[in-house]
């Protein structure tokens, strides 16, 4: 009964997240306002029946812009998480299964990246690469993959000497076959949980870089950029900064809860 309740919670959160992502993709065809359409006569209108979240300084509907921001912020975070977890997991599998000089070099490189606070390193990397969504994503990915390398290597080391791995090795399976078909399926749970937790962190990092002017630039509807552009309006038009801020809070909370339900789903404690 408890197991059924945990599965129900997992699938409910998965459905909510999926529905939210699909709605953000279809919002421009559903909502009556365009996220980029300006109307200065409607500038800085407070929340009302006409504009549920009010308008910004250019008269753009805040609800439309907040939902449109999910397409940039959340989908960018999903792509970064997928690439970082894939790269880090591949390196971790290799380092956990093999013993050679290349493994030592890769592990020392991982330690270098882990030695710096991730956000500070991302700011430095984004500053060197220049602004823009792509460069901000590249900077965040640079600091995101090492955690997966350490996680997967730690999970792989004790499995390397188990009897069923030895049996697979004696049956003629190659190293890559053993890593991908015998070890990876066993440790996929911790990887998925870490990735789900990482999505929320990466969303805040994307928003943070954009807020500092190192990420997506206006007029793109990106949550951090929207908050940066509205920071001078906090006292006169607080809805312009609260709308993207609350969107970040809700989205990050959903992914945190999803990661927790994912842990119960895989029965990892």
The CATH class turns out to be Mainly Alpha
Radius of gyration: 22 Å
Number of helices: 9
Give the % helix.
Answer: over 70%
Largest sheet: none
Number of strands: 0
Instruction: State the low-pLDDT regions, or none.
Output: none
Structural class: mainly alpha
The number of distinct structural domains comes to 1
CATH architecture group name: Orthogonal Bundle
Q: Tell me the CATH superfamily.
A: MetI-like
Q: Within the CATH hierarchy, at the fold level, what is the topology?
A: MetI-like fold
**Shape by Cα distribution:** elongated
Tell me, rounded to a whole number, the average pLDDT: 88
Strand content: under 5%
N-to-C order of helices and strands? HHHHHHHHH
Distance linking N and C termini: 19 Å
Protein name: Peptide/nickel transport system permease protein
Organism: Megasphaera paucivorans
Pfam family, one: BPD_transp_1
Subcellular location: Cell membrane
């Amino acid at each position: 009964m408890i197991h059924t309740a945990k599965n129900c919670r997992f699938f409910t959160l998965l459905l909510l997240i999926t529905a939210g992502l699909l709605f953000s993709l279809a919002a421009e065809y559903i909502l009556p306002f365009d996220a980029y359409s300006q109307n200065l006569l409607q500038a800085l209108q407070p929340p009302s029946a006409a504009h549920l979240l009010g308008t910004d300084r250019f008269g753009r509907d805040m609800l439309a812009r907040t939902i449109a921001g999910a397409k940039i912020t959340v989908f960018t975070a999903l792509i970064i998480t997928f690439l970082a977890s894939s790269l880090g997991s591949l390196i971790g599998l290799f380092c956990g299964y093999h013993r050679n000089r290349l493994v030592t070099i890769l592990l020392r490189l991982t330690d270098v990246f882990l030695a710096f606070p991730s956000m500070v390193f991302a700011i430095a990397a984004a500053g060197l690469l220049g602004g823009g969504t792509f460069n901000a994503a590249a900077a965040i990915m640079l600091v995101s993959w090492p955690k997966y390398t350490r996680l997967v290597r730690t999970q792989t080391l004790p499995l390397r000497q188990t009897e069923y791995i030895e049996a697979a090795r004696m049956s003629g399976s190659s190293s890559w076959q053993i890593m991908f078909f015998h070890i990876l399926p066993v440790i996929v749970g911790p990887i998925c949980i870490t990735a789900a937790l990482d999505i929320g962190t990466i969303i805040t990092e994307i928003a943070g870089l954009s807020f500092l002017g190192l990420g997506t630039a206006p007029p793109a509807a990106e949550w951090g950029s929207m908050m940066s552009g509205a920071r001078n309006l906090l006292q006169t038009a607080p809805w312009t900064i609260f709308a993207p801020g609350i969107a970040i809070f809700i989205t990050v909370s959903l992914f945190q809860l999803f990661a927790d339900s994912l842990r119960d789903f895989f029965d990892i404690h």
